[in-house]
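This is your field. Please look over both lines of this record.
***
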Amino acid sequence: MMALQVAGGVLPPLPARGGRGRALFRPPRAVASGAAPAAAKEEDGKVALGGSGVAVTKLGIGAWSWGDTTYWNEFQWDDRKLKAAKGAFDASIDCGITFFDTAEVYGAGVSGAINSESLLGRFIKERQQKEEAEVAIATKFAALPWRFGRGSVISALKASLDRLGVSSVELYQLHWPGIWGNEGYLDGLGDAVEQGLVKAVGVSNYSEKRLRDAYERLKKRGIPLASNQVNYSLIYRNPEENGVKAACDELGITLIAYSPIAQGALTGKYTPDNPPKGPRGRIYTPEFLTKLQPLINRIKEIGGNYGRTPTQVLSIRDSELNCGAELACVPGQRGADPWGEERGAGP
C-alpha cells in the first residue's frame, strides 16, 4: 500500500469526493544514509510485495479477531460473530479488497475458539461456489520454542494450507523472531518457495538487524525477502525511529502495517467514557483516550469537511498518499458495515 507518515499526527488535506487527489502530499523518503531509495511499485490498484513479483491490493484485511476468544470478542465466539466475520469477508471482496492476513495461532488452542485460517478457508470456498473470486492469502508461522529447524516450517505450513483449503499461499511469514533456531526458520521459508508452497516469504515484528540478516540469508538462495509486518499507525511510529522503515526502503522490502487504526482507537468509536472491553481496555485506558481526543477531533474535522467518516479518513491516508516506500496495511475487520463506509473512501 502506498501510505503516508505524518509528523506529530497532523493530517494533510483530503481530496474532495469524486476528485483524483493523487499528488496532494509528498513527504520525504526515509532512506538509510548513502542508500538508493527503493522504487514503489503500483499497478492496477495493487502494490508489489518487495521483489517477489507478487502483487496484492493496497489495503488488506487482518483476520486476527476471527474465531478468537482470548483478546477479541469479549472472550466468546458465537454464531452472531461468525456471521459478522463472513459479512466482513464478503463486503471486502465486493469493494475490491482481496488481500487477507491470518496466522496459525489466531483463534487456536483455546476452548470455544475457532482457527482463523479455517474460517478464512471456509469463507473463500463458500464465495467461490457462487462465483469466481480472486483472493490473496498471507499467513504466518509461529516460532514456538519447541519447534526446531527448517522442517518445522514446512510441517506448519502444510497444516495451514490444509486449514485454508488451498495448495499454496501468496505470502508466508515468520510471525515473530524465535528464541533460537531463526536461521533454520529462514531456511524453511526458502524451502517453501522452492517447493511451490508459497509465492513470497516475509517476516513480522523483526528489528532492523534481524531484518537485514534475514534479507541476506535468503538472498544467498536467490529468494527476495518480500515483507516485514510491524505495528505502525499515527500513534505508534516506532518503525520510523528504530531503523526498520529505513531498512525496508533501502532493501526494497514492503513494510506491512498491522493495527493501522490502532485496534479501533483512531476511529472515534471509543471514548474515555466508553473504552474497549477485554484486554484492549488495559491498553486504551480512559486516560490514554483522553490524551488521544485532540487527534480524533482533528480526524473528524477533516472528514466532516469532505463528507467522510474517521475510518474513511484513515483509509485515504493509508492508501492514497505516498511516503516514498512500499507499504501495505492490514486493519482488522469484524463486521460488514465499516467496509460499506470504505466504498466512499476512494478518490
In short: The longest strand covers residues 198-204. Confidence is low (pLDDT under 50) at residues 1-40, 320-325, 338-347.
